[in-house]
Specification:
Layout: H1 2-15, E1 35-43, E2 48-56, E3 62-69, E4 74-83, E5 87-96
Length: about 110
């Protein structure tokens, strides 16, 4: 009889509906946090030139710009915005520079063996 009562209690526990959460977990609530950052690299020795600036406002609109000098000496500058209405929008400009990119010399691994 004890086994029968125990089996009934286990069956009731398994058949009981799961507790419902107090919120709808499928709805994601995102509260935009304004921010801004930037960085810039200008290294004449390695001819590494790049920069980036980005901001997000209290409405969640992200805007920014990044640029770099390619191996052909052209500076590529991309300006972008992203928001909930228009999505991600970007535009890239190219500007010829007089920068001559220095490529590192290739070293054979045998030169570093002792």
């Amino acid at each position: 009889m004890k086994v029968f009562v125990f089996a009934c209690l286990v069956a009731i526990a398994i058949a009981a509906p799961a507790a419902k959460p107090d919120f709808d977990s499928s709805e994601e609530i995102i509260i935009p946090q304004p921010y801004q950052f930037s960085h810039q690299v200008a290294d004449d020795d390695s001819t590494n030139y790049q920069s980036r600036v980005e901001t997000q406002d209290e409405d969640g609109v992200v805007s920014g710009q990044y640029s770099f000098v390619g191996p052909n000496g052209i500076r590529y500058t991309t300006t972008y915005t992203a928001d909930a209405v228009n999505g991600f929008q970007a535009h890239t400009d190219e500007e010829q520079t007089d920068i001559k990119i220095v490529f590192p010399e290739r070293y054979d691994s045998d030169e570093f063996d002792n």
